[in-house]
Amino acid sequence: MAALSDPVRARLWRKFMEAGASPPTVLKADVRAAVNAVDDWVDSNASAFNTALPQPFRGAATSAQKALILAYIALERAGVV
Predict the structure, then answer these.
(1) What is the domain count for the chain?
(2) 56 lies in which domain range?
């Protein structure tokens, strides 16, 4: 999957801010920079993530399914799921 577009990043930033998930001492612009950095990191490390997935899941799953499993793990670690 390619990096997210700027409008999508802005939408995610707004959702994060509306959820009250940001530390109160961090500026909105800094939170937006963090959203951009995380998306860039995911894009840059997609190959390593894909390689870490075991077969047969790696070969059978779509990019969206691989992203979803990563999201479930991240949400669980954040205490959301």
Answers:
(1) 2
(2) 52-81
